[in-house]
Amino acid sequence: MAAPDARVSVLIPVYNGDRYLRAALDSALREVGPRDEVLVADDRSTDGSAQILREYDGQISLVENPAHEGLPRNHNLLLQRARGDYVTFLHQDDELTAGSLPLRRETLEAYPGLGLVSGDSLFVDAGGAALGPPQTPSLPRPSDLGDGDCQQRERVRCRALAEVVQRNPVQVGSVMMRRSLVGRVGEFWESLQMALDYDYWLRSLLRAPLVHLPTPVLRFRVHARQASQRFRERPDAAQEEIYRAMTHARNEVRRLALRVPPRILAKWDTITLLRGTMASLPASWLRAMPSPIARTWADLFGM
After folding, report:
1. Which of 113, 83, 117, 82 minimizes the C-alpha distance to 103?
2. Residues 56, 59, 60, 65: what is their CA dihedral angle, to the nearest 10 degrees?
3. Which residues are CB-neighbours of 272 under 8 A, at least 6 positions away?
């Protein structure tokens, strides 16, 4: 349990996650300090998740939703209850790596103008074996902030935004953000299911810079039961969600007249158009796409 002035809130949305839930909780509890909190929202699980969570009584703060709300709403309910100066999500089938929580917190503390910090994700299979080297996206590093003056922060923000416009290079659990930034960005857009984080990172980067730490902070588990598996099975649905996320965040630029360089807006509009075109194609056509074209698309846009 955390004091009212918690430093870090680790937010864990849970729904029928009993297979890997203990590993996720244990990894979070190994990372938190006495002033941090592990806040869990059980979305009316029907498996053994509720029983597992009761075993951690006194170590976690548990919210039991009165009705099943769904993943996007569960993210927002956790954000509303978070008390930490910094917040990070951890999904029920993933794990934090040793030292990842203080490393990201210390980076945010060292650079007051920084809004978000991400780290590498190590993809693992259902049994926990690594599927390859850690994912290291080409995002700005802390050293790129220099002395942290306003102009340099703006350059870093625009560089990160340009990268994220092209593709979502980070997993939800690899990002830590200031709660003060959450107050400016608002909630996750609940009309999205799988791309809700992509929309959120885009909207965040309209307001604050992000830097990336080239060290693993998250063990991201790939398995048949994970929610994002639907993206791999339905490429047309994946492109549709990403298209909607990009359009939603782009509309916020217009609505609030936020500052974005014209070159990034041009890139944003072009890729949004490409995503929309891909979303209109049948899934069977996308799966039958010639390998060189599919590889080029994946290399450029991550899908």
Report:
1. 117
2. 40
3. 243, 246, 247, 250
Tell me how far apart the alpha carbons of residues 55 and 156 are, in angstroms, rounded to a whole number. Answer: 44
Q: Which residues contact 231 (CB under 8 A, 6 or more apart)?
A: 194, 237, 238, 241, 303
How many Cβ atoms sit within 10 Å of the Cβ of residue 277? 11
Structure tokens at 260: 């974005």
Q: How far is CA 3 from the centre of its chain?
A: 26
Domain residue limits, the chain: 8-226, 232-301
- Strands (E) across 46-141 are located at 61-64, 86-89, 95-96, 116-124
3-state secondary structure of 294: helix
Say what angle helices 262-279 and 150-166 make with each other, to 10 degrees.
20
> Residue-wise pLDDT tens for the chain (303 aa)?
444 566 999 999 999 999 999 999 999 999 999 999 999 999 999 999 999 999 999 999 999 999 999 999 999 999 999 999 999 999 999 999 999 999 999 999 999 999 999 999 999 999 999 999 998 899 999 999 988 789 999 999 999 999 999 999 999 999 999 999 999 999 999 999 989 999 999 999 999 999 999 999 999 999 877 766 666 667 778 889 999 999 999 999 999 999 999 999 999 999 999 999 888 877 665 556 666 655 555 555 665
pTM of the predicted structure, to 2 decimals: 0.92
User: 170 in helix, strand or coil?
Assistant: coil
Distance CA 153, CA 150 (A): 5
Q: CATH classification of 8-226 is 3.40.50.1000, yes or no? A: no
Neighbours of 2 (CB within 10 A): 22
